[in-house]
């Protein structure tokens, strides 16, 4: 029976489940750069280049192995502008009897593909995505009956399941499950941060860069200095680069931010893991191996593995467990618009300017910039979750709905009632000062609170605490904050609230 096998842009994995048992002599593969997927949000130009180029390289690889691949390159005038239209036209031409694909990573597309058997009139087999360490059902089974879902406990289950960093007696290596307390050092320039891994664009990538510049000129960001890997071999080299040069310091400086260095000791592997060029479990195994070989300390290796085995799997589980209602959550009742400077970086707040400018240039910012700078500001300013979620989905090369949404709506905006954290990650300028050198170069003064040049994070933080008393005053992890707020001099409290009201009314000009 001849099958049409659809491989999506984030399924660039040689042993993707859609290909299992397929026969290159009779089955045919479809891959397509379609307008609907490229344009449903204002994707960063570098994200489009990464995905189109990686898809083209992957399709070539399949053809070299003897597969017939029908590849639709992007053109705004293509007759088929959606994946469904592409599949429909191939079904008409080839007369295939069935469509096979691997489950996609987004509710929106999942809803569409789930209806294709009716609209296309042929069976559509949707296979499990076996690249995740926990299946959707496994997560649901773990979650069932629990009062609270905490990443830490799920992570321990995943450690037991995979044996990663576990002794032969079933105990965590190093005697602890979690070494996070060791991972909070400020970075002051020493040891120097490694240069990021680079691949110079080949002719295929250069063609895509031209295409993106021509047809997506208004999308966020730039294609300049594109240096991401676009093949699995190069992504493996990026992994080796991280293991050799950055992993040993990853833990110590995991939460640090720098005015000078965009990448610090982060792996910059999420763009590859998320589109299938790297396998998440193999990445974790490589890190564990580095510890056993004495090449990196336990706080670095455990911290790194926790991000993938714990957080990455956990947010995916939460997404599929709670969608589609999850996307509409707004438990803090936010109504604010996203300030325009998120798209331009044009603000006198140095930390925000630096994080947004790096995002514009690189389609990348590291976790603490996303969480404690751009995320923290949106939380304190009361931005509507859907607006800030749209921004995060657009601007990062690693952004896909299943991973972006829980991180933003849940972890950053606390709009889901607390699946991703028992308290919001709200912080004043003091946190940013402690973890970075931005404040020394800022127009605003981090030690001031109410004056014209006072750090905006300070007054906004107390305004957030004050306006959400009903939401958080009984939270045991926030009681101390309310005590601190209540014992401040009434004039000072009034001054802080006034300054915050002024900032909130003038967000676009701070
Ligand atoms: P490293 O710091 O080197 O971490 C190693 C790996 O761990 C990453 O490659 C990633 O695969 C995984 N990881 C780490 N933290 C998380 C997390 N919270 N959730 C899921 N995976 C994690 N990650 C995405 O992949 N796509 C997104 O769209 C995305 N949006 C985010 C939005 C916000 C507001 C926040 C706070 C975090 C977001 N993250 C997202 C998680 C994290 O910030 C990125 O995975 C990380 O910055 C990617 O860079 P890296 O590869 O250098 O990561
Ligand atoms: Fe950011 Fe405030 Fe520090 Fe300026 S002073 S860099 S706005 S935290």
In short:
The protein has 510 residues and is mainly α. Helices cover 48% and strands 5% of the residues. Among the domains are: 125 residues, HUPs (Rossmann fold), CATH 3.40.50; 169 residues, Orthogonal Bundle (DNA Cyclobutane Dipyrimidine Photolyase, subunit A, domain 3), CATH 1.10.579.
Write the layout of secondary structure elements.
Layout: E1 3-6, E2 28-32, H1 35-39, H2 45-64, E3 68-72, H3 83-94, E4 98-102, H4 107-120, E5 124-127, H5 136-143, H6 151-162, H7 203-215, H8 232-245, H9 247-250, H10 270-275, H11 280-292, H12 298-322, H13 341-344, H14 350-362, H15 367-380, H16 385-395, H17 401-412, H18 429-435, H19 456-467, H20 469-472, H21 479-486, H22 490-505
Parallel strand pairs: 1-2, 1-4, 2-3, 4-5
Helix pairs in contact: 2-7, 3-4, 6-12, 11-12, 12-17, 14-15, 16-17, 19-22
Flavin-adenine dinucleotide (FAD) binds at residues 266-270, 273-274, 304, 307-308, 311-312, 315, 366-367, 370-371, 375, 392, 396, 398-399, 403-404, 407-408, 411-412.
What does this protein look like?
The chain has 510 residues and is mainly α. Among the domains are: 3-127, Rossmann fold; 341-509, Orthogonal Bundle (DNA Cyclobutane Dipyrimidine Photolyase, subunit A, domain 3), CATH 1.10.579. 48% of the residues lie in helices and 5% in strands. It is built from 22 helices and five strands. It has helices spanning 35-39, 45-64, 83-94, 107-120, 136-143, 151-162, 203-215, 232-245, 247-250, 270-275, 280-292, 298-322, 341-344, 350-362, 367-380, 385-395, 401-412, 429-435, 456-467, 469-472, 479-486, 490-505, and strands at residues 3-6, 28-32, 68-72, 98-102, 124-127. A five-stranded parallel sheet has the order 3-2-1-4-5, with helices on both faces. α4 (107-120) links the parallel β4 and β5. α12 (298-322) packs across α17 (401-412). The radius of gyration is 24 Å and the shape is globular. The mean pLDDT is 96. The protein binds flavin-adenine dinucleotide and iron/sulfur cluster. Residues 349-351, 429, 432-433, 438-439, 442, 444, 446, 455-457 line the site of iron/sulfur cluster. Flavin-adenine dinucleotide (FAD) is lined by residues 266-270, 273-274, 304, 307-308, 311-312, 315, 366-367, 370-371, 375, 392, 396, 398-399, 403-404, 407-408, 411-412.
């Amino acid at each position: 029976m001849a099958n049409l096998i659809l491989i999506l842009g984030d399924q660039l994995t040689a042993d993707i489940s859609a290909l299992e048992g397929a026969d290159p002599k009779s089955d045919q593969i479809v891959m397509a750069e379609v307008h609907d997927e490229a344009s449903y949000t204002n994707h960063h130009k570098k994200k489009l280049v990464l995905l189109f180029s990686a898809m083209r390289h992957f399709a070539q690889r399949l053809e070299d192995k003897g597969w017939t691949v029908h590849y639709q390159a992007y053109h705004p005038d293509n007759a088929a502008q959606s994946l469904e239209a592409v599949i429909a036209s191939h079904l008409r031409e080839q007369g295939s009897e069935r469509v096979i694909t691997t489950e996609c990573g987004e509710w929106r597309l999942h809803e569409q593909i789930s209806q294709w058997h009716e609209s296309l009139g042929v069976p559509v087999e949707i296979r499990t995505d076996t690249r995740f360490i926990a299946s959707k059902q496994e997560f649901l089974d773990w979650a069932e009956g629990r009062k609270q879902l905490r990443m830490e406990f799920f992570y321990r289950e995943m450690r037991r399941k995979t044996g990663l960093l576990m002794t032969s007696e079933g105990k965590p290596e190093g005697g602890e499950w979690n070494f996070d307390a060791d991972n909070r050092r400020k970075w002051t320039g020493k040891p120097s941060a490694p240069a990021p891994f680079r691949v110079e664009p080949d002719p295929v990538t250069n063609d895509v860069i031209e295409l993106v510049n021509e047809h997506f000129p208004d999308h966020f960001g730039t294609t300049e200095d594109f240096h991401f890997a676009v093949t699995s071999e190069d992504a493996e080299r990026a992994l080796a680069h991280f293991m050799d040069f950055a992993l040993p310091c990853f833990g110590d400086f995991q939460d640090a931010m720098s005015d000078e260095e965009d990448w610090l000791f982060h792996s910059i592997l999420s763009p590859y893991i998320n589109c299938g060029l790297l396998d998440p479990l193999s990445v974790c195994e490589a890190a564990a191996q580095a510890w056993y070989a004495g090449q990196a300390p336990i706080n670095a290796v455990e911290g790194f593995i926790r991000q993938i085995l714990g957080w990455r799997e956990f947010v995916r589980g939460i997404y599929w467990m709670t969608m589609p209602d999850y996307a509409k959550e707004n438990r803090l009742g936010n109504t604010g618009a996203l300030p325009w400077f998120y798209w331009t970086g044009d603000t006198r707040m140095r930390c925000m300017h630096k994080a947004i400018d790096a995002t514009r240039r690189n389609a990348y910012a590291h976790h603490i910039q996303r969480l404690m700078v751009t995320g923290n500001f949106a939380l304190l300013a009361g931005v509507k979750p859907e607006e800030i979620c749209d921004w995060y989905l657009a601007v990062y090369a690693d952004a896909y709905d299943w991973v972006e949404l829980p991180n933003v709506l849940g972890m950053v905006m606390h709009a889901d009632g607390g699946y991703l954290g028992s308290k919001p990650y709200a912080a004043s300028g003091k946190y940013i000062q402690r973890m970075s050198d931005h404040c020394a170069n800022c127009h605003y003064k981090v030690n001031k609170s109410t004056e014209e040049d006072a750090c905006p994070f300070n007054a906004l933080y107390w305004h957030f605490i004050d306006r959400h008393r009903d939401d958080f005053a009984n939270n045991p992890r926030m009681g101390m904050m309310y005590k601190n707020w209540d014992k401040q001099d009434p004039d000072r409290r009034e001054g802080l609230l006034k300054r915050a009201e002024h900032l909130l009314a003038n967000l676009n000009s701070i």
